[in-house]
């Protein structure tokens, strides 16, 4: 998304996270599913005026940028073992066991998962699991054939950021369109055999690639 009014758009994005939090719960056809299922998110906003890239995320969907021949992660996964997250989780009355909240969820921020947002004495931002994003900014001056990658954990469980960017660069050199590159990345990540639960290559996969056709000044 290109915009001139970054501050206003960032407020809108944060507000949309809050709205999504409620909509998911209301639209669940099964009360049980609403309590135990969830989703992550990552959003990137590019400012026309100064070229800044603003990124927000919850969970383990990531944004990675490739510029000046280097890979730059823009997000950090929200994991229960991170000290900031762990403190909030324990204050909310939950425990982290083997990297998972109450031996279940291995994320500390997500949409849904309302069973871990049910402490009636605490606000939405104080629950064991929250749906509020972290925001990061990059001043990278993108040049032709630089790119941005937005993808969920189904991709990152099968390849790291550098591997993904290296693969994308190879496809760009072959003049492949971003949509086709996404298909090839997913094909490479999918396990060739039916994976055992928790094994890499068997999770849902979503990928978006934004490639710059010219230098941004």
TrEMBL record:
PPM-type phosphatase domain sequence ranges: 1-212
Protein family per UniProt: Belongs to the PP2C family.
CDD domains given in the database record: PP2Cc (cd00143)
Annotated protein name in UniProt: protein-serine/threonine phosphatase
UniProt keyword annotations, A-Z: Hydrolase, Magnesium, Manganese, Metal-binding, Protein phosphatase
UniProt EC number: 3.1.3.16
Cofactors demanded by this protein: Mn(2+)
Organism name: Euroglyphus maynei
GO MF term (any one): metal ion binding
Cited InterPro entries: PP2C (IPR015655), PPM-type-like_dom_sf (IPR036457), PPM-type_phosphatase-like_dom (IPR001932)
